[in-house]
Design brief:
- The protein is an alpha/beta fold.
- It has a single domain (about 5-15, about 35-180), classed as Lambda Exonuclease, Chain A.
- About 40% of the residues lie in helices and about 20% in strands.
- It is built from 8 helices and 7 strands.
- Strands 1, 2, 3, 4, 5, 6 and 7 form a 7-stranded mixed β-sheet that branches.
- Strand 5 (about 120-125), helix 5 and strand 6 form a beta-alpha-beta unit.
- The longest helix is centred in the N-terminal third of the chain and has 17 residues, at about 35-50.
- The protein binds iron/sulfur cluster.
- Iron/sulfur cluster binds near residues 23, 203 and 215.
- Iron/sulfur cluster (SF4) binds near residues 23, 201 and 216.
């Protein structure tokens, strides 16, 4: 099988629906985001940007090519440099492991840890009122990828509090419990991408949850 690279988005879309990740990789031109989904993403990005400052000063690793695409290689290099110099709070910290890629919302150096063997706490930010099960899988993929490079002591999901504050929920145990099964889940998503034909998956609740799928029109044969 041709070597398949997976981002966190590929993994999460593939866990939701094999057809969705196949379309992302073979026919992205079929994608049409509903206006309410665009708004949802814009609000989420805004909340994510604000949350970068939740621990005060930070260094952001984001890098882009001239055409606007994310420059993963530069982000990984910058993250390595930030770790080497002991940066306390790193946002969009990028990691790779065996063709997998992720960029963490926030990575915070643990207070008082041994500089020769540092440990970090990771924070995954979600513009949602509570922790949903798929947030755990999202954090689990990132933990799996990054733990090849760094030691992660704790994992938190950050959600939007009632007065636009940040609520943090510790999910370390749940994330750790998923790690043994990650290679199987990753292979399952890779197999969906590698399919030579569009997978035949019937429409159902995954088409609407957690938000309307961008291929809804294609799969329901409706022009939106
Ligand atoms: S619309 Fe439904 S069946 Fe089609 S790709 Fe999306 S989730 Fe899968």
């Amino acid at each position: 099988m041709k070597k398949i690279r997976l981002t966190k988005t590929d993994f999460m879309n593939g866990m939701r629906c094999g057809k969705m990740v196949w379309l992302d990789n073979h026919h992205p031109e079929y994608k049409k985001l509903a206006p309410e989904v665009k708004e949802l993403f814009a609000r989420g990005n805004e909340f994510g940007d604000q949350a970068m400052g939740m621990f005060g000063e930070y260094e952001e690793m984001s890098a882009y090519f001239e055409d606007g695409h994310i420059d993963c290689g530069t982000m990984i290099k910058r993250t390595k440099q930030a770790i080497k110099k002991g940066t306390r709070v790193i946002c969009e910290a990028a990691f790779t492991r065996d063709g997998l890629y992720c960029a963490m919302d926030t990575l915070r150096l643990d207070d008082g840890c041994d500089p020769a063997d540092p440990t970090y706490t990771m924070y995954e930010v979600k513009d949602a009122p509570k922790v949903e099960p798929w947030f755990i899988m999202d954090a689990a993929f990132q933990y799996y990828v990054a733990s090849k490079t760094i030691k992660i002591s704790k994992v938190f999901i950050v959600t939007r509090g009632e007065t636009d504050t940040y609520e943090t929920t510790k999910v370390t145990r749940l994330v750790e419990a998923t790690q043994k099964g990650m290679p199987v889940l990753i292979d399952h998503v890779k197999a969906a991408i590698a399919s030579s034909e569009e997978p035949t998956i019937p429409c159902g609740k995954d088409c609407e949850e957690p938000y309307r799928c961008p291929y809804w029109g294609h799969c329901h044969n409706i022009d939106i």
